Amino acid sequence: MSDEVSASIATGSARPSAGARRSGRRGGWLESRLQRIEPAWISVALFLVALLVYVGSNLERADLYDHFVWQADAFLHGRAEIAYPVTTGAHQNGHFQDVLPIPGTGLAQLPFPPLPAIVLLPFVAAFGLATNGAAVAAVLGAVNVVLCWLMLLAVTPRRSAALLATVFYGFGTVAWYAAMLGTTWFLAHVVASTFLFLAIGLAVRTDRQTRRGWLERKQRALTRQLATGVLFGTAALARLTTIFGAPFFVFVGGGGSWLRRSLWAGIGAAIPVLLLLTYNVATTGSAFHPAYEYLHRVEYRPRPELVHPDWGIEDPRYIPQNAVIMLAWPPQRPLLEDDSCAGVTPGPDLLLASDCPLLRPDPLGMGLLLTSPAYLLVLPALLRSWRRRIVAGSALAVLAIALADLMHFSQGWVQFGYRFSNDLAPFAIVLVALGIARLGVGPLSLGLVGLSIAINAWGVYWGVALGW
Fold first, then answer.
1. Quick check: is 444 in a domain?
2. What CA–CA distance (Å, rounded) separates 2 from 248?
């Protein structure tokens, strides 16, 4: 690898395209203004705006599925099993899905990795089962927007590209839906994203420092790569499939070579992963939680034709059909498809009408190309800069996580968009920022991000209106 290419790994300082230079001349005032503003002030503004949007999107925040609150309460009482089913009193859980009852005990096990429950421990210690985990998700989701911004400042020196990509992440992807809803499955995504942003940001900054060639900094870089691995592995304690993002840390981080980067990040990641396996063995007698097999047999199947009981929980044969859900699954069209809507004349609110709208999200999901078209901005980076380590590492991480999720028998249910995309979003946003930096902050990038925000606002509206 040439010194010129290597020198641009962490900073994203590859020479911009002609289109980017033209865009830069048109919008150079934005870049120059952002360069004069202290990034900390932008961080504060992003946090406040994200918090206002996430909280204001769902003021009721009922949090009917608060598995992790019950799990945290169980931890505080010295056990791993939650009380279940509790059908009387102020706090009930008899309606819960995704639990493994233990016959004759009044207890049940949860299949989810325990990190979100650990995050909730201080709140449950203070407020008990009245803790609103969804409110915590909204606050932590706003923190994630700031972490995304800080991460991207290390990825590219073009603050305008970093800011636009951050705005896209916060409001143009299903990160908005996850943070504003915050129930069990979405809280797990929010918590995992926190540690992924921390890990990626530290890896990119460490990569930059390693290339300075000083022995003392190389030693510190190895220590930081170890810490990067710990942060990365910790994300898997919230969402298991995030561990497939490991290729990124082979390509980017401290150590000076792919072997040292892999070794030190791998040692770091192994620490929390081994703790998770130990936790599983101690609480279930198995390294892999048996509740997943139970759920595979009994979980509600809203579209029976999409589930094959004779296939495994993770099976490559699911990839073709699930890829359609991930990329291009369409919304419902009640006005055109429901017999009860025959003869109804569409009004000015045809996209938001409570009865017979023209379009309404499908609870099975919607494809990323429809809900977040600004993901197409990864293409300039992939097509023109694929030899750069940060691009190759990000692309392989996205691909590996996507394949792991696509092999799963269930792709989520009652959701807007494709919630599993939260697992790969921190790596994909790196590519989006580099794509914008190459393309420039112009009509195309602004238009795609604006369209993504409008579509996700529509999805959030429907999620709240339908009580999802």
1. yes
2. 20
